[in-house]
Structures are given as structure tokens and as C-alpha cells.
Amino acid sequence: MNLQQDLKRYKILIEEELKKVFPKDNIPQEIILESMEYSLLAGGKRLRPILLLKSCELVNGNVQEAIPFAIAMEMIHTYSLIHDDLPAMDDDDYRRGNLTNHKVYGDGLAILAGDGLLNYAYEIMLKTVIENKYSNKFIDAMNEIANSAGFNGMIGGQVVDIISENKEISPKILDFIHLNKTSALIEASLVAGGIIGEANSQEIQLLRDYGKYIGVSFQIRDDILDIVGDQKILGKDIGSDIDKEKSTYVSIHGMDKSIIDLETYRDKAIKIMSKFDKNKATFFVELADYLTVRDN
Q: Cβ distance 154 to 148 under 8 Å?
């Protein structure tokens, strides 16, 4: 099975699980569930939940045990996109090929839809923790995800990104933004899957490093696509970073160095996977390569 087939198979699994998570009762606040579902079920690569399941599989874990955490991770990622698209932040009109949440439901409901997805993600993970009698591996996986999404992770990266607009920033600050705003959730997905799969400490560190490398390469490719990408393929506005005078990897390092560094991070990620079972690591090797050339 090649990478695209594997991605498609796991994406279908994630999509089916996402469709089950919301209650279908007729309730007064039904509109917020509709708004949450609008963004959550709008498609996307589902990269983070797939990575969580595949890392669990990589270390011979039970993938079924990891599904609630994969669903929670996608909810957290989607909440961040809803808020990121708001007028007070990036002010984008399109996401995943559709109008952004606030363009359909208004700013207030979009904010609450993001809040709802974030909170529901923790409800789902806690339910699994309780049902498994407070098993340490589920607690540790939840802790990893929580830390990556907070002010020491994704939110911290978003904060520095916002306060850096219309300013010249150092490569060090840009690295901080990328490692936290983008890479943190990717890294946590891999680590959480490894924890649930009962990986040893060495394997956890390898997964963490792999996540860091592909997370940064993912963002570099995004910065490149913001200049050379096709809006119809990307499913979102291009040139928005330039319009907002935001510093990107390309604006600081130039296109040629960005491409070179992208390939360097790919090679580092691939090297890490040589430490794992060759057959099971093939997915991760091919993924690292794919992320350097993707067009969406």
C-alpha cells in the first residue's frame, strides 16, 4: 500500500468517527453544533489524527484505543483554524475550499464554535481516561496534547505571530512561531500516539524529533505555497501573508534557501525513521518526502 492509499484509508476512518461525535437531539443551542460541524466536517488533510493513529501502529499499539484522542486532536486543530480565520486575527474568507465559519455564522458563533470544539475535545479524552480507570498512558497522552495546544505551544506561537505583524523579526523568533504555532500539534500527535501504543522513552524522543522536523517543513512549504500556490487547489486565500506584511520563512531567508532547508528537514525526518521497523516506517518516510512537494 502506497502513501496516498494509506492516507485515504485513515482519512476515511477519521471522517466516519467525526460524524458520530455530535448529539442529534433537538436542543435549543442546536445552531452551535451546526457551526461546529460546518468546520469540523469540511474536509482537510486530517494529518494530525492520522499521525496519531499511525504512530500508535508504528510501535505496535492498539489503534482502536487511540481513536478518541485522534478525534480530539482534529477538534483542537479545527478550533484553531476557526479562530485564526476571524477578522481580529488573519481575517480570511476561505478555508478548506469553503467560506470560513464567521462568514457563514457571524463572528460571535464562530468564536463559540471554536470554544465548543476545544472543550468537547477534552470531554472526549476525559471520558476515555475515566472509562479506562485512569490509566496512566491515557492521562499522559492527554497531558501531551493539552500542553501542545496551550500558551507554551500553539497559542504561544499564535501570540508571537500576531505581535510580530508589520515588524522585522529575527530568524530565532520566526523559528519560535513555527515550532509552536504549527509544529506543536503535529509533534504532540505523534507523541500521544506513541504513548498510547506504549512506546519506550527512546521511541518517544524519536517520534518527537520526527514531528518537529516535519512540522517545520510543513510550515516552510505553506510559506512557499502562499507565494506560488493555486488558490483553487489550496482551498484558501494565497498572498495573505504578503498583504498583512507578515514575516515568513521565504521573506526572511529567500526562496532558494527555503527550498534547501525544506529538503534538509525532510532528510533529518527520514533518517529518524531508520530506527524503526522498516515496513511500518515506510509511511513516515514517504510522508516526509511528500510534505516537501505537496500543492495543498
A: yes
Residue 97, Ramachandran bin (φ over 0: left; ψ between -120 and 50: alpha; else beta): left
Give the angle 287-289-291 at the CA atoms, nearest 5°. 70
**Cα separation of 254 and 119, whole Å?**
40
User: Does residue 124 sit in helix, strand or coil?
Assistant: helix
Report how far apart, in Å, the C-alpha atoms of 275 and of each of 4, 90, 264 are: 23, 40, 18
Number of H helices, E strands in the chain: 15, 2
Q: What is the pLDDT of residues 37-75, one digit of tens each?
A: 999 999 899 999 999 999 999 999 999 999 999 999 999
Q: Is the confidence at residue 147, as pLDDT, over 90?
A: yes
Domain boundaries, the chain: 3-290
Q: Which CATH superfamily is domain 3-290 in?
A: Farnesyl Diphosphate Synthase (1.10.600.10)
pLDDT of residue 228: 80
In tens, the pLDDT along 233-255 reads 555 566 566 656 678 899 899 99
- Angle between the 47-58 and 201-228 helix axes, to the nearest 10 degrees? 150
